Amino acid sequence: MDLGLLTTCLPEVGFPELARWASQTGFRSLEAACVAKGARWYDGARLVPAKIDEAAAAEIEQLLSSTGLKISCLSFHDNMLDRDDAARTAKWRLLDATIRAAARLKVPVVSCLVGRDPALRLGDCIATWAKLAADALSVAEEAGIRLAVENSPLPGWQTEDLPGNAAFAPELWEKIFTHARGENLGLNFDPAPLLWLGIDPLEAATAYAERIFHVRARDAEVFPDRRNDCSCLRPQGGWWRYRLPGLGQLPWTRLLALLQENGYDGPLSLVHDDPVWTGSQEKIKRGLDFSRRFLEQNLV
Which domains does the chain have, with CATH numbers? Predict the structure, then answer.
């Protein structure tokens, strides 16, 4: 596995600078978050797909060659079921631009969300998403790109305490793969939300091994005493928090061994959402380096 990181953890650092730091620190890949607008081909640590023309692609290729890095995935994360018709159409166009940028940069995977329309049941959200995603999946297939759905629930994104992304559990994954058929549709597998949701990440990784196109390395910590006060129906009640790998409760040795046993040999993208190791770039980088060393010790 190539150990990389998701670029959103250092949003104010320019992409070239972040790439150089990541390479010097020992990372081997980047999961590049994408945004709609920017003055040039990058906006801070994020890429701007609409700005990635031939000249920008050549500049990015030179940067990657000089640092020994690769881009493992382009991630465009927005609510693809926005209730406003114009906003929803714009977001699907941006996903299409991200897929085309991935093809230009020879990046094999594009990650996205399902999102949620609070007026619809979860199953109806998925059915609607599948219809809207048909063109994007066709464009991606033609370009040799795989589309990976992120499985974070994003509670409170549209409505307080309710999941904002209709792809947070294996039951919903099954509905996604039933409604939106295609060998190039899979998961950007993140075990951390599964832990606090009460889902066994080892079982999920086994059951959906063939659909795991990209893996995120994020950990979580659960506080049962706090959950006793607010209940599991208050996902933002403070009874859990994301942690850096090595500081949470996930069994990383078993999980990574299981992924490899089931045939996954792709990128492992470190995600920094740890509230303890924030506050300054120096502290964030220290946390990232700690988890990089921790994960490397658990890779076979």
Answer: 2-297 (3.20.20.150)
